[in-house]
Design a protein that fits this description.
384 residues, alpha/beta, Aspartate Aminotransferase, domain 1, Aspartate Aminotransferase, domain 2, 2 domains, 7-stranded mixed beta sheet, 4-stranded antiparallel beta sheet, 13 strands, globular, pyridoxal phosphate binding, PyrdxlP-dep_Trfase_major, Aminotransferase_I/II_large
């Protein structure tokens, strides 16, 4: 038999799937995979249900329903003072992962270099490599996740096509500040590159932090493709509704990629997300406050057990150092150990790095019901 595609075939099952299967097998509380265990706003879900019965269910426009594209443009203006033409600068996708694939397939030519900052969300490298890109990896590391500016500057060359920037960053829970973003923007402009910005956690920031899209910095409006996610903003990850904001000349080739990937996204979900994006400010503030309370809840419990807690500035995730517990083994061993012995599952941070991985940190997902977080902490406390 002839071999399948060598790029994609070289990747095994994701660490999330491996650990989730192990959690099911052993009846463990799964704090590994990043999705809430309760659904998002009832009124948004009701809009989807009503639209399913009352509105057409045939192919919507390839670029997305006008009402959602208008809502995305208005959202950009409302939160970031970005003036966006909904007709030529907004496109709806079937989730942020599809949006990433559309952008990378549309912009990368074989041999183009792509700058990425580790630790990496697991789909980034496979898509870049399948598109023919050459990854140039720079890493931030716990406990402080400092941006290594000299290494980042060295990663940019005349062959750099784009940087893929995740902000707020999964799994590091790092939020890039304005100074760091300005440094990145300068490199992008200096090397005539683009920036694909995965900003799906834009409304889940803590301790008074405000999200700053790279697109808002001087000279970046025409070079950025900004990706958002209804799944993260409305705690409805199964809906897989994403959206891209980009200048017309960049969005045009991305739209051609999109037309040959999913083409469209369910129209009732698009109508519901349009409604959600226009909700009162109290909803968005409440989402961040709720997640911050959960972060503090699990951080306190893990610290009491003896974990070393790393600062979490945003997202669903908190990183913990296992060394203070005296565990003899690496982070992969630890995750298997607590699944079997404590009935709690998490994921090793080393899975998000390539070479010379840091092997004594684990990532806990805290977007779960309080009673679930409390039970997980209680099980870990008993085990240690």
């Amino acid at each position: 038999m002839k071999a399948a595609n060598s790029t994609l075939s070289s990747y095994g099952t994701t660490v999330f799937e491996v650990m989730s299967r192990l959690a099911i097998e052993h009846g463990a509380i799964n704090l590994g995979q990043g999705f809430p265990d309760t659904d998002g706003p009832l009124e948004v879900r009701q809009k989807a249900a009503d639209a399913l019965l009352d509105a057409p269910n045939q192919y919507p426009p390839m670029m997305g329903l006008p009402e959602l594209r208008q809502a995305v443009a208005a959202h950009n203006k409302r939160f970031y003072d970005l003036d966006v033409d909904w007709q030529s600068e907004v496109m709806v996708t079937s989730g942020a992962t599809e949006a990433l694939a559309d952008c990378l397939f549309a912009l990368i030519e074989p041999g183009d270099e792509v700058v990425l900052i580790e630790p990496l969300y697991d789909c980034y490298l496979p898509i870049v490599r399948r598109a023919g890109g050459v990854p140039k990896l720079v890493r931030v590391e716990p406990p402080d996740w400092t941006l290594p500016r000299s290494a980042l500057e060295e990663a940019f060359t005349e062959r750099t096509k784009l940087i893929l920037l995740n902000n707020p960053m999964n799994p590091a829970a790092k939020v890039f500040d304005r100074e760091e973003l300005a440094f990145i923007a300068d490199l992008v402009i200096r090397h005539d590159a683009y920036a694909v910005c995965d900003e799906v956690y834009e409304h889940i920031l803590f301790d008074g932090r405000q999200h700053i899209p790279l697109m808002t910095l001087p000279g970046m409006r025409e070079r950025c493709l900004r990706i958002g996610s209804a799944g993260k903003t409305f705690s409805l990850t199964g809906w897989k509704v994403g959206y891209i904001t980009a200048p017309q000349d960049l969005l045009a080739p991305v739209a051609k990629s999109h037309q040959f990937v999913t083409f469209t996204t369910p129209p009732n979900l698009q109508r519901a997300v349009a409604y959600g994006l226009e909700m009162e400010q109290s909803y968005f503030d409440g989402l961040a406050a709720e997640m911050q309370a959960k972060r503090d809840r699990i951080a306190s419990g893990l610290a009491d057990i003896g974990f070393g807690i790393i600062d979490c500035e945003g997202t669903y995730f908190i990183t913990a150092d296992i060394r203070p517990l005296g565990f003899c083994g690496d982070d992969v061993d630890f995750c298997r150990h607590i699944t079997l012995e404590a009935g709690v599952t998490t994921v090793p941070v080393s899975a998000f790095y390539q070479n010379e991985a840091i092997d004594h940190y684990v990532r806990f997902c805290f977007c779960k019901r309080d009673e679930v977080l409390d039970e997980a902490v209680a099980r870990l406390k008993k085990a240690f």
